[in-house]
Amino acid sequence: MTTVDAAVLVTSRAESPYAASHPIEIRQMQLDPPGPGELVVRIKAAGLCHSDLSVIDGSRPRPLPMVLGHEAAGEVVEVGPETEGFEVGDRVVLAFVPSCGKCGPCLEGRAALCEPGAAANAAGTLLCGERRWHHSSGETHQHHLGVSAFAEETVVSARSAVKIPDDLDFATAAVFGCAALTGVGAALNAAQIKAGESVAVFGLGGVGLSALLGAKLAGCADLIAIDPVAAKRDLALELGATATLDGGPDTVAQLRELVPGGVAKAIETAGNAKVLRSAYDSTRRGGTTVTVGLPAPAQMLEIPAVSLTAEERTLRGSYLGSSSPAEMLPKLFAYWQEGRLPLEKLISHRLRLDQINEGFDRLHDGSAVRQIIEFD
User: Fold this and answer.
1) 151 lies in the same domain as 42
2) What's the CA gap between 145 and 1, in Å, rounded?
3) Rounded-to-integer distance, Cα 172 and Cα 192, Å
């Protein structure tokens, strides 16, 4: 059993600012050795994501206390029994759906929808159904999405890990594990953007800007970026957007002035049903809207049902970029090595682990893109 410092979410629905209410505590935790098919990974860098924030604010309830965090990269320091393909010293990025490889969705090539992986994530366990976190009080703590990245070391299923190139730094590698997989995957796999198409991206956090980069990779023409934060709109222009909008009440009308008839593809990343409706309304006849945001379960979406038929519109969700991380991530690494996927530009802040509550305040108020906790 190893003792490590970890950021533990002890309560949800705490009042912000979190720097004052401290929903996350830094605790010394005991970490069990890895079981069969598992790895111990020393975390080098971990990103703060809205999926973490949705657990903190209670919009996506999870069992507590929980070692939070799901976007990370690090180094393998121990390999459990019956674990093939990894050895001590391997540099890895972690994906937040540990696909079993055997269930119906996995066999169909839809690893993001792995049924045992989803069940384990909801229950706060590893893929095997067990927990490896313990506190000195005797209380067992939960895993977050099979990763628990906000810790010096963590135990993960080997099916959550993908090796990274030697020339990829850990901070940038962490962004690949969620933001890039989700955003670039939404553009390439779910929206299937084609060269010359017009695209709108609603929400310019780490996932939204990754979607914008994915649209650019696909060779889109008009690329409209929508967000209320001016600094994020400026970054979107730097990354290849052809125009930006501030997301006000006239967004759809303004967008249709820029692209008469509406865009071919819209990607919504804000996790808000009203924004999703605006994204849907921004598309042309025959257009496609892809949502990757995670709104609170009580939010409902209303659209004209007849538009799906009479205008041949498509509305679809995308989780983990509608991808298999083991197949998708090497492709994304290659794009980065070619200079076509500059994810390092998405990193707006670098933090220590003990600054995590302040970091989530910035995420909550929209003043950050991707914040990275660095452990060295």
Assistant:
1) yes
2) 22
3) 25
The model's pLDDT over 305-322, given as tens digits with 9 standing for 90+, comes to: 999 999 999 999 999 999
Question: Does residue 186 form part of some domain?
Answer: no
The tally of CA atoms less than 13 A away on the side-chain side of residue 1 is 12
* Domain span at 296: 192-317
Q: Whole-angstrom Cα distance, residue 109 to residue 318?
A: 14
- 347-351 and 370-374 as β-strands: parallel, antiparallel, unpaired? parallel
CATH number at residue 104: 3.90.180.10
Res 255: pLDDT: 98
DSSP code, position 151: B
pLDDT at 1 over 90: no
Q: How far apart are CA 215 and CA 51, in angstroms?
A: 22
Sequence-separated (6 or more) residues with CB below 8 Å from residue 338? none
SS3 104: helix
State the Cα torsion 210-45-78-5 to the nearest 10°: -130
Q: Which residue has the tokens 């929808």?
A: 113
Domain assignment of residue 185, yes or no? no
Average pLDDT value for the chain? 97
